[in-house]
Design goal:
This protein is of the alpha/beta class. It has 17 helices and 22 strands. Strand 3, helix 6 and strand 4 form a beta-alpha-beta unit.
């Protein structure tokens, strides 16, 4: 029976290509003609070209870009080469343009005028773009007329942009066709006309430090998104009136499909309880600095079965038992951030069901005389075999765990083999470990164990040992194994 070389089967090679970084994909092109033909589309699918050194190891020339233009689906650039902007990419879907500028006002003005023309010409040549990201200090008026002709545009992301009053009609017209709009540190000089109608396709809206529009104006924009599923809203000028109006609109069912909410600092415990009671399901909540407390926690229980990401950093009303119950009750949880949880509460609680956890930012604290609980906690953590990032950091010396004695005598999880570290040998996907501010006493043998068992480990933030001489030795060992050791924090 004839044998078949599995690596010559196109379907298998296509599967392999999905998991390779660009330098490895480029290397595969030289293996044979079959591999060259298979891997070439993956090499050219996403291209990043910049005036700074290209970090991904693949910086194609304009000539090469023109030759392979039909394979390019995503392009990110801040390069001013005319040859690059003159190319038509028939299958381009995602475009990110950063408009560079000079510090000198006179030369900077000239560069801006040249760039404006290039950007407008480039967008006119590539009407297939569906996702556009712009990073620029200001925008020429004609660019919004050009963008309005991108009939397939569904996502628009603006960073540090300035929408002038005379451009606002074109800008809001563009927004009418979008499914996703993100405004980061962007100023919009003119509010949207009340007679303009709603945004019939908008599913995701992010308003972060938006200037020009008052908080009530921003709320009007949010109200005009009836199909909204994902809202991230942060305003430095948020008022209690606007906050209360937002909560009332949620309670009235204005956004029946809303399931992802990112709002920091402003919402109180009863506000959050009202929102959680009103929505059918919440899968993502980022509520750092909010008043999340017992009322919101009780309302959250209804969403335990579906929630996958929960950010409760700096929420002083969240208790250790609440975090314990979340770990025991949310099977789809992949991302959890909070102030911390007590080891004794973990041990006294039920088994963890969050086996899909990828990112855990939750300090674990031990009271006096609880050293015997260390191995039990390591055993619980060993169940999180998909974990990629584990953050135990704490930067406040007093009251590290809300709801406890003002001066608690608490110790952190001890990353030493004698305390049970060896139980974490199964965390093969762990890439980032953060122990900043936790007073560790690990030695060379622990560092050697980490690089031996955590083969994907890329960086350790914080000191593994409080003694500087030890850290010098640890740094040498970790760097030898290509692990960055940032023990300055």
């Amino acid at each position: 029976m004839a044998t078949v070389d599995a690596l010559k089967i196109p379907e298998i090679n296509l599967l392999i290509a999905r998991y390779l970084e660009r330098p490895h994909l480029v290397a595969c092109l030289s293996v044979c003609k079959t591999w060259h033909q298979t891997f070439l589309p993956f090499v050219w699918k996403r291209i990043i070209i910049g005036t700074s050194r290209f970090v991904e190891g693949f910086s194609p020339s304009p000539e090469a870009m023109k030759q392979h233009r039909g394979l390019v689906q995503e392009l990110q650039t801040d390069d001013l080469q005319l040859a690059l902007y003159a190319i038509h990419y028939p299958n381009l879907r995602t475009l990110q343009l950063t408009r560079p500028f000079e510090l000198d006002a006179e030369s900077g003005s000239q560069v801006y005028r040249q760039t404006d023309k290039l950007v407008e010409a480039f967008l006119s040549r590539n009407p297939s773009v569906t996702k556009l990201t712009l990073r620029c200090k200001s925008s020429p008026r004609t660019i919004w007329g050009t963008i309005s002709h991108l009939a397939g545009l569904r996502e628009l992301i603006l960073h540090e942009s300035f929408i002038k009053r005379e451009d606002s009609d074109d800008f809001w017209s563009v927004c009418m066709q979008l499914e996703c709009l993100e405004l980061h540190d962007t100023t919009v000089e003119s509010r949207r006309p009340l007679s303009a109608g709603n945004f019939p396709r908008m599913r995701k809206l992010m308003l972060s430090s938006v200037g020009g529009l008052s908080t009530p104006d921003q709320l009007e924009v949010i109200k005009d998104c009836p199909l909204l599923k994902d809202l991230q809203w942060y305003s430095k000028t948020m008022t209690a009136v606007s906050k209360n109006m937002f909560v009332l609109h949620v309670a009235a069912g204005l956004w029946p499909y809303l399931e992802r909410l990112h709002m920091m600092n402003i919402l109180g415990d009863s506000d959050l309880a009202t929102i959680l009671d009103a929505q059918q399901q919440m899968t993502f909540l980022w509520l750092s600095g909010s008043g999340f407390g017992p009322l919101a926690f009780q309302a959250l229980r209804r969403h335990f079965g579906v929630i996958s990401e929960l950010g409760l950093a700096d929420c002083v009303n969240v208790t250790s038992v609440m975090f314990r119950d979340i770990l025991c009750s949310c099977p789809r949880m992949e991302f959890l951030v909070g102030q911390g949880v007590l080891a004794k509460d973990i041990v006294e609680g039920g088994p963890w069901v969050c086996r899909s956890m990828r990112d855990l930012g939750l300090p674990i604290w031990f009271g006096a005389g609880e050293e015997s609980l260390q191995p039990k906690i390591f055993q619980r953590l060993s169940e999180l075999v998909l974990l990629e990032q584990f953050d135990m950091s704490v930067f406040q010396e007093d009251d590290p765990m809300p709801g406890l004695d003002p001066m608690p005598d608490l110790d952190p999880l001890d990353f030493r083999l004698q305390s049970g570290l060896g139980a974490l040998s199964g965390l093969k996907r762990l890439r980032v470990l953060t122990v900043s501010g936790t007073r560790q006493s690990a030695d060379i043998k622990e560092a050697a164990w980490m690089v031996s068992n955590w083969r994907d480990l890329e960086v350790i933030h914080g000191r593994l040992n409080e003694i500087d001489d030890y850290n010098d030795k640890l740094e040498g060992l970790l760097l030898y194994h290509n692990v960055f050791y940032d023990w300055s924090i």
